[in-house]
Design a protein that fits this description.
This protein is α+β, with helices and mostly antiparallel strands. Helix content is 36%, strand content 28%. The protein has 5 helices and 4 strands; from the N terminus they run βααββααβα. A 4-stranded antiparallel beta sheet has the order 2-3-1-4.
């Protein structure tokens, strides 16, 4: 069962965006995406909150997340979070193995 974690990084003076930019430019995002079990690792910027960045982080299963959390990469991420003085709000979702119900598909334009 896939696990998706939405992490809202919030800071001041554009620090959340600077954090995301450094994660990308430093190659950390590339390395995370290359880890076994990673499905998605993408940053988004909420239109109504310039001081927050949303990370959508999806993994094949909890074991993949646990291995990621035990990797040396996490120390780099924590160091950057501290550098930019970021605070986090976390939401966690498990995949629906059955997929999108037919009743919902009528509202989706592909």
């Amino acid at each position: 069962m896939a696990v998706t974690v939405n992490i809202y990084y919030s800071g001041k003076n554009g620090n959340a965006k600077k954090f995301a930019e450094e994660m990308i430019s430093g190659g950390i995002v590339r390395d995370i995406r290359a880890e076994a079990g990673n499905i998605r690792y993408e940053y988004f910027f909420p239109m109504e909150d310039e001081e927050t960045v949303l990370l959508i982080d999806s993994w094949e299963n909890q074991q993949s997340i646990d291995i990621h959390h035990a990797s040396p990469m996490m120390a780099q991420i924590i160091k950057l979070r501290e550098k930019y003085d970021l605070h986090m709000k976390v939401e966690r979702y498990l995949s629906d193995e059955e997929g999108t119900p037919a009743s919902d598909k009528t509202f989706i334009r592909e």
